[in-house]
Design the sequence.
């Protein structure tokens, strides 16, 4: 089975930290690269099943330490 095409993605995250908590925001796949990191090859056919990864997405959150 031939190898899957290589891909390159860029992620970014910024965070503000204090001793008891952290607030963060990030962007995954900044350049909206289309790629499949997971591919299945059937033993009974020549078909390959590609599972595309998500495009550009944003996340915001907070971690609290007890």
Sequence:
């Amino acid at each position: 089975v031939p190898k899957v095409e290589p891909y390159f993605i860029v992620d970014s995250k910024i965070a503000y930290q204090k001793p008891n908590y952290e607030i963060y925001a990030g962007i995954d796949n900044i350049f909206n690269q289309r790629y499949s990191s997971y591919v299945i090859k059937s033993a009974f056919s020549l078909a390959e099943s590609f599972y595309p990864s998500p495009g550009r997405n944003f996340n915001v959150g907070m971690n609290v330490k007890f």
